[in-house]
Model the fold of this input.
Amino acid sequence: MASSLPTVPGLVAEARRLYGQEFGEEAPQTAVCAPGRVNLIGEHTDYNQGFVLPMALPLVTVVVGRQTSGQDVTVVTASEDADEPRRVDFSLSSDGSPLSPGLPSWANYVKGVICHYRAPPVPGFRAVIASSVPLGGGLSSSASLEVAFYTFLQQLKPDDGDKVSKAVACQQAEHTHGGVPCGIMDQFVSVLGREGHALLIDCRSLEATPVPLADPGLVILITNSNVKHSLTGSEYPMRRRQCEMAASVLGKDSLRDATMKDLEEAQDRLDDVTYQRARHVIEEIDRTARAAEALKRGAYKEFGKLMVESHNSLRDLYEVSCVELDELASAAMEVEGVFGSRMTGGGFGGCTVTLLQAHAIERTILHIQVKTHKHTYTLYTEAVLSNLGVRPPLGGV
Ligand code: GAF
Done:
């Protein structure tokens, strides 16, 4: 069934209502939000100190809440997950000992952010979370929760850090409490993303260059495979270790410093899989730099070709795609007016991102729906977004 994408005021109203229900008459004192992201190109390059090109989305996580006098914390989430309680209660220790991760798992992001907050100690509080970022959809639901929570804590007790240190603190929360040794991309773009722009992030220097993306002739389509991805398993950390191992065999600090020539020369000292992983990263870093240049010039065909190369490399060399993502990307590429399509985010499920001419949107959606209808997978188009506005999500097929 089609339903409209929640707006930020709609999410705030939902969170306020739940706050009233849980905590009685007293209204929350503050409401903050942080966006999810879609990565246009540059996948698995961030923890190799390479380039990434994500953009913040109008899908957001909202936190409303109020400081309390003691050291008790209660957080309630509006998200429905049958397996986990929606409420968590814990106490902030007076001796500064860190909060350990546990259950419910969504609360670990909150605990992690408290532990890495730059102006400890954090006061007690009550808070409610509401989000329009699909959980496990590869659009950074966890980073948007971390960043929203960090912003919430800043409202209660300001810190004196800059935006980059905020992103880094949220990344640390993901490492210690979310169980994923992620790079900096998701938290960085959630903090520093700019409306109407993608952000070229140099993950070594942490410099970011906004790339305008507000051409009315252009649409970005995000399609959710509805295959839930989780990066907390062993695959993501294993990819990271393989990259580190390849860099060390090449005598480099990171794969950012390596060329394909370096890799070819070291090929007999690397096993086949490690070679393939490193090749993806070295080529993807170069592709991302070229793609950002193409986007600046409005060379969308060239950009689209790089997106397809990126997808193929993630599928064949990095092995983080899945059948559903491959099908979605290739179905989109069959439509006239589509420049490029690829899986986005960590992989193993989640979404594809497609760059296309605005006038081709209806036929692209129809084509994807018709193609995926033949299969038993549950595929649906989650949302159609452009920087110029948000179109309502389409129903499941
Ligand atoms: C996940 C991680 F959190 C990011 O840091 C990044 O590595 C991405 O996967 C792959 O590009 O979203």
Q: What stands out?
A: The mean pLDDT is 89. The CA atoms of residues 49 and 203 lie 5 Å apart.
